[in-house]
Amino acid sequence: MNEYDSGKMADVLHACEGMVQTGKPEEADVILLNTCSIREKAEEKVFSDLGRVRALKLANPDLLIGVGGCVASQEGAAILQRAPYVDVVFGPQTLHRLPQLLQARRETGRSQVDISFPEIEKFDHLPTPAMVDVSEKYGKSSTAYVSIMEGCSKYCTFCVVPYTRGEEVSRPLADVMSEIDQLVATGVKEITLLGQNVNAYLGDGGDGDTVDFAFLLQHIAALDGIERLRYTTSHPREMTQRLIDTYETTPKLVSHLHLPVQSGSDRILAKMKRGHTVLEYKSIIRRIRAARPGICITSDFIVGFPGETEQDFEATMKLIDEVGFDNSFSYLYSPRPGTPAAELRDEVPLEVRAARLKRLQDRIAEQEDGVAQAMLGTTQRALVEGVSKKDNSELAARTENNRIVNFSGVPGMIGCFVNVKITQVVRHTLRGELIISH
To answer: 225 CB contacts (<8 Å, ≥6 apart)?
Structure first.
């Protein structure tokens, strides 16, 4: 979501003020920090980065510095108290107002703050779609993010998102389809749908009708030119049977699902206010795998939530063994200001929590390796995204189950689908050989 928003910030400044991005901060007229407040370290990094940018401001008083995103929404004008050299502070829902905020700063000489929640207005005022440029060198773009909704109404006790991005608001179906049509016209083949709680989508379908996420997926899949569909991030409570059935009826929907569970303990899930049990989560996975055999499941885990006992943690490890995950984002719990969980007492020593996290990550890594080993010798249809990060003489492609495979190919393949035989497993990546069809 932040990557998408960053692209939109660049778009709106280019469209309104003719600005282009530079890789050299000392050449910039405007420097923007797009921030995240999900984790404590990410939040502190904002002020660390601001400290470094301050030196550029001292050297160039005309430089404008902006802070956007969720930390901006959470802290608001308090950012100016800690970093008075910041010129504009804006939230995720007001990034489209960035040119006006910068102009007001120039005209008045006063720092500007706008962290309001104007709901869907943002999408109505943004320029034409920004694509994910998979290879600046060759100028081809084959994948794109499309944000279909904003905010979250689940109010998990540990999560700050509802307070920084507001409650769930879905874009109308026609708006989403219009953006995707424009992307297809430029050669985009793969779309990733975005939302804080993407499968809660309920958009205006026109004529007073409301359409759900399953309908949206099927509608997009019917478009000529779209060859692959992804989405993130989803919530178990919104994993309807209609959505599950889509995995059986819609081949363009990839065989990869990121479905955060956070804990394998019903007691902790209740304290987190997740709204589902372990048994319900496992039932969802079972039904999805029945609809799409071989699908890879990834998840999120919070280790050391206040009051987590050894028994609670063992329940999480049991769930990991029973489900079998391909990967995960897992973190030590960090209290977020303003959330209910921030008021809970945490008596588990840090070294205990850290040991639990390592054990969980090691187990997930074993399962991840098992999935990779099972892919050896198979032929995978993969979308070539660009030059390999490990060896610029090779290309990197993404398989349907979200694995990167490096192989020998030619630059003209970037942006195209190819068949690659998996020949080697390397940590977090695969190696393969191009299969040429005759």
So the answer is: 184, 188, 189
Whether the bond between 233 and the residue before it is cis, its omega within 30 degrees of 0, is yes
d(CA 34, CA 212): 30
Where is 144: in which H helix or E strand? strand 143-147
Close Cβ partners of 389 (under 8 Å, ≥ 6 residues apart)? 396
Per DSSP, 129 falls in state: P
User: Contact at 8 Å (CB) between 179 and 145?
Assistant: no
Per-residue pLDDT tens digits for 148-182: 998 999 999 999 889 888 899 999 999 999 999 99
- Residue 225, sorted as left (phi over 0), alpha (psi -120 to 50) or beta, turns out to be left
- Which residue carries 């195209």 as its tokens? 416
Q: Where in 182-276 does DSSP place strands (E)?
A: 190-194, 202-206, 209-212, 228-232, 256-258
- Taking CA atoms, 321 is separated from 27, 224, 227, 258, 367, in Å, by 52, 40, 33, 17, 9
- Rounded-to-integer distance, Cα 55 and Cα 59, Å: 6
What does R_g of the chain's alpha carbons equal in angstroms?
23
Q: How confident is the model at residue 367 (pLDDT cuts 50, 70, 90)?
A: very high
Provide CB contacts within 8 A for 24, sequence distance 6+: none
| Residue 53 host element (H or E) | helix 40-59
Query: What sign has the CA pseudo-torsion 243, 247, 252, 256?
Result: positive
- Find the farthest-apart pair of alpha carbons in the chain and give their distance in angstroms, rounded: 67
**CA 355 to CA 74: how far, in whole Å?**
31
354, 393 contact by CB (below 8 A)? no
For residues 372 and 166, what is the distance between their CA atoms, to the nearest angstrom? 39
pLDDT in tens, 20-40: 999 899 999 999 999 987 777
What's the pTM? 0.86
* Residues whose CB is less than 8 angstroms from the CB of residue 203 and which lie 6 or more positions away in sequence, other chains included: 148, 149, 170, 171, 172, 173, 176, 210, 211, 216
What is the dihedral angle through the alpha carbons of 107, 112, 118, 119, rounded to the nearest 10 degrees? 120
- pLDDT tier at 139 (50, 70, 90 boundaries)? very low
For range 51-62, the mean pLDDT = 93
- State the DSSP string of 331-354: EE----TTSGGGGS---S-HHHHH
CB 84 within 8 A of CB 109: no
User: Cα 121 to the chain's mean position, in Å?
Assistant: 21
Element spanning 300, H or E: strand 296-303
